[in-house]
Amino acid sequence: MTEPTKVADDVTKVFDTILVLDFGSQYSHLIVRRLREIKVYAEMLPCTQKISELKFKPIGIILSGGPYSVYEEGAPHVDPSIFDLNVPILGICYGMQEIAWINGKGVSRGDKREYGPAILNVTDKECPLFKGMDNSRVWMSHHDKLTELPSGFKTVATTSNSPYAGVSDETKQIYGIQFHPEVTHTVQGKQLLQNFAVDICKAPQNWTMENFIENAIERIRATVGPTAEAIGAVSGGVDSSVAAKLMREAIGDRFHAIFVDNGLMRKDEAIQVKKALDDGLGINLVVVDAGDEFLTNLKGVTDPEKKRKVIGHTFIHVFERVANQIKPKDGSDVGFLLQGTLYPDVIESISFKGPSQTIKSHHNVGGLIDNMQLKLIEPLRELFKDEVRHLGELLGLPEELVWRHPFPGPGIGIRVLGEVTPKQVQIAREADYIFISEIRKAGLYRQISQAFACLLPVKSVGVMGDQRMYEQVIALRAIETVDFMTADWFVFDAAFLKRVASRIVNEVTGVSRVTYDITSKPPATVEWE
Ligand code: GLN
């Protein structure tokens, strides 16, 4: 037998980590993103993090921007012991002002707000932070400014408006910049972050999904132990499928995936999910056909929030019932519940939202854990969506699964406006199928972030084969987005829309009219309910 691999219980023990302390800027998560893109592992914590309570020793620290002013009463301040860790520090905007405030209080409100592009002039060509950079466009977003150099610092870069666009104390390896390197408007921003992480902090650039996999599997084994079993819901989406495949690799048949067919899935989806996970990936899968139960509970419910609640509760009910029937071979209880939580959810729950913040905790199936006394296992907690997709490819998931558009838990239940009846679900499902098939045929599926058909319970007059029709309306929605926080509608060519509309009216009984939703988010949301 081979020696067991040494297992770390935390990613930070395997990958050298840069710590990003968040002061509440809307861009903070992008700092983490950019570092991951250059294969450097980074994690974000709120700026109020006590250094003595850190679970790992970072190889460098980045202080983010933030909406406050360092000199204000109640402004957030970093634990000053970051300066005793003897690791390189980079302050961005508020982060730089914070460094200056701690080292001499030379910060005050500037005469004018600076928002937008500026040209960076690197005045100290030797400064390692600006290696390979000069005269490029940087993005500014501030009102406060440094009024003098913090003690021990020198100026290394300027812009026409900011005499202290970059400052450094090279003996202590502390750097501050007034602009935002994490946004793409800063042309060489990634270069700067790479200079900091790789050259200054000596990050090994080993954060790859290839490296992640092996350790993730070992960590699951260590967490679950040699005999316990785990359960988890799968939906056919990329997150739950990747998480399930990791569990399967780690503990084989001791992981039980439960797929609840709520009768609100897309056409043929339940069959496809079963085929991909069970036959394709060898995951120990239980499929529960609970469509009738969901539809019965939805009878007479028209309010969108109420619908979501009914669907959520029914799901928990069904899941628990099935999970309780799963008995480990040794007669013990199932010990773990798998959840496909991703890093953006984690960030959302820990990011700094100001003195009055109430920390939002994220629970998808929170109720389940209380009732069933299961321990939560979240193997994707450190990953962004694109990292999960890459992981899925490495784990051999079919392309269709890896790149599947997101699909809400309540499914077609919130795409049939008004009351959800079997007949209405059927109409929405058929129309959706035609729309998605045509999108695939046109080679647009990957370009579009999400697309679907909605059934509006509004009657509209039409004529077909000399017959007067008085039927319902289908609204098509297709959006493009990077992060789903904001989105724009997808511009199809007219011939495509014509084709889809004519197929839907001709092939789906009960539809007399098709419209295309041309609203961006905001103000509209992606889903209609
Ligand atoms: N509130 C500070 C300022 O106005 C910092 C802004 C920021 O970090 N983007 O300068």
From TrEMBL:
Residues in GMPS ATP-PPase domain copies: 207-404
Pathway linked to the protein: Purine metabolism; GMP biosynthesis; GMP from XMP (L-Gln route): step 1/1
EC number: 6.3.5.2
Chief location: cytoplasm
Gene3D superfamilies: 3.30.300.10, 3.40.50.880, HUPs
Positions bound to ATP: S235, G236, G237, V238, D239, S240, S241
Top-tier EC class: ligase
Reaction equation(s) it catalyzes: XMP + L-glutamine + ATP + H2O = GMP + L-glutamate + AMP + diphosphate + 2 H(+)
One GO molecular-function entry: GMP synthase activity
PROSITE patterns linked: GATASE_TYPE_1, GMPS_ATP_PPASE
Record's GO cellular component terms: cytosol
Subcellular compartments: Cytoplasm, Cytosol
Keywords annotated in UniProt: ATP-binding, Glutamine amidotransferase, GMP biosynthesis, Ligase, Nucleotide-binding, Purine biosynthesis
Function: Catalyzes the conversion of xanthine monophosphate (XMP) to GMP in the presence of glutamine and ATP through an adenyl-XMP intermediate.
NCBIfam families per UniProt: guaA_Cterm (TIGR00884), guaA_Nterm (TIGR00888), PRK00074.1 (NF000848)
Database matches in HAMAP family: GMP_synthase (MF_00344)
Subunit structure, as described in the record: Homodimer.
Protein name, as recorded: GMP synthase [glutamine-hydrolyzing]
Record organism: Brettanomyces naardenensis (Yeast)
